[in-house]
Amino acid sequence: MHYVDTSVLVAYFVPEIYSANAETALRDSRRYPLALSEWTATEFVSALGIKCRTGQLNEAQSLSVQRKFKALTDFFEWLPVETEDFRQAHDWLGNWRLGLRSGDALHLAISHRSGHVLITLDDRLARAAGTLQIPAELIR
Fold first, then answer.
1. How far is Cα 90 from Cα 108, in angstroms, rounded to an integer?
2. Dihedral pair phi/psi, residue 116, rounded to 5°
3. Domains of the chain as residue ranges with CATH
4. 49-63: pLDDT as tens digits
């Protein structure tokens, strides 16, 4: 099973340099079932907000992307975010050499606890996963 990082979802729904990679990864049946968490959904909307504030998307485009995402949510397995995930993320964030941001540490913790392979487009996140010996695929 595979846990999808927000970077992959954003690239899938919004044209970016690695959108083709994201589409290939999400359509690859060998990775099924694909999993998300409520954190992924929250961070996804936040990323769309950043794209709106920076002029990469307008409000109508953001709302359209959000509708498309909601239409596909039944396609994914939804993993809970548990207290132990926050505690694990906290511990990993204490190791500043990993270079993790808080949201990325939470993705790693959820992926690690659930035993899912993390799929990401984020180099820093993939490197941290490797250091922590958490299975991850950098799809670029």
1. 11
2. -90, 150
3. 2-138 (3.40.50.1010)
4. 999 999 999 999 999
